[in-house]
Amino acid sequence: MHTRFLVLGNLLGRSRLGRTAVSLAYGYPHGDARVIVDGLAYHSPVMLSAGFDYNARIISILPSLGFGGVEVGSVTARASAGNKSPQLVRLPRSKSILVNKGLKNDGVDAIIPRILAARIPDDFVIGVSVARTNDSAAADENEGIADYCYSLKALSKAGAGRYYTLNISCPNSFTGELFSTPPALDRLLTVVDVLALARPLYVKLPISLPWEDLRLLVDVIRAHRVAGVIVGNLHKDHALLAEGERSHGRQGGISGAPCRETSTELIKKIRATVAFTIIGCGGVFSPEHAREKLRAGADLIQLITGMIYEGPGLIADIARDYANSPLV
Ligand SMILES: Cc1cc2nc3c(=O)[nH]c(=O)nc-3n(C[C@H](O)[C@H](O)[C@H](O)COP(=O)(O)O)c2cc1C
């Protein structure tokens, strides 16, 4: 289904007629849900989160759905076929998806021209999520840092993407979450600082760590040239799934409803300690869920699973609700 959506989205995004038709059916054409974050103007506070348009195939259709932006990727330095199938399993009773894609993508060099060719209005933001290549050539920490930097430099040189995210929290990769410990993250960010990127840089956090451990990561991030965090990635706790869908022994992180409360609580805790940008992500299925995250301290919202279960009308519903009463 994901593949079919991408093929259709790509087709519709290619023509003005396709974009107009989708906009009439689902769009949110008014400008009053606009938000500005780190100097970037978003048509609405809702973005498509990383992992849906991982190969930058459907960017051009997304403004017609009311999105304020998309996070393309995660992209990696080398192309990767990802993990063995099944890479995605729908868990409808839990309103979740079991994700075991393992960073499947065409590689940063193939994806850059697609980002540059996207037809988008000025108030639609393309961010690019950068991860470490998931293949058997992945070696030690230094090689991992070089891998991240290769993608960041390629994107920056091409002028592709208006912000970048470091995905340090992909739960299903060859070398594991190597950069999710404070010392390793510090070493990665120290090297990335030297790149002096001209675009905002965010770090996407794991949500399955205890708060005491996550707080140490936030402390590291604050000491570097990082504009904020995305809270957060997939949950690892399969016990949160409905009975019968607990995926005994199955690999993968879980999205959607099981992430909602954890991510919102973490946003609150992080907001109490920092003033930088927080992008709230995890289990947004309604305008009220978006408001909960904004009230907790998020500046923007990202989602995937809510759109899959509730349909693409959800985006305009959130934008309309926000426009009617932006003071959350
Ligand atoms: C199919 C799928 C693929 C994903 N791939 C990525 C990815 O490549 N990089 C990333 O940072 N997050 C990835 N994620 C996590 C999402 O970006 C998001 O953090 C998570 O799904 C929680 O949001 P949701 O409940 O709105 O889906 C993926 C999620 C899904 C459902």
Automatic annotation (TrEMBL):
Class in the EC hierarchy, top level: oxidoreductase
Keyword Oxidoreductase: yes
Pathway: Pyrimidine metabolism; UMP biosynthesis via de novo pathway; orotate from (S)-dihydroorotate (quinone route): step 1/1
Cofactor: FMN
EC numbers: 1.3.5.2
Keyword Transmembrane: no
Keywords of this entry: Flavoprotein, FMN, Membrane, Oxidoreductase, Pyrimidine biosynthesis
Gene Ontology MF, one: dihydroorotate dehydrogenase (quinone) activity
Pfam families assigned: DHO_dh (PF01180)
UniProt record, GO biological process: 'de novo' pyrimidine nucleobase biosynthetic process; 'de novo' UMP biosynthetic process
Predominant cellular place of this UniProt entry's protein: membrane
Catalytic activity: (S)-dihydroorotate + a quinone = orotate + a quinol
PROSITE patterns cross-referenced by the UniProt entry: DHODEHASE_2 (PS00912)
Superkingdom of origin organism: Bacteria
Protein family membership: Belongs to the dihydroorotate dehydrogenase family. Type 2 subfamily.
Purpose: Catalyzes the conversion of dihydroorotate to orotate with quinone as electron acceptor.
Name of this chain's protein: Dihydroorotate dehydrogenase (quinone)
Naturally occurring in which organism (per UniProt): Candidatus Vogelbacteria bacterium RIFOXYD1_FULL_51_18
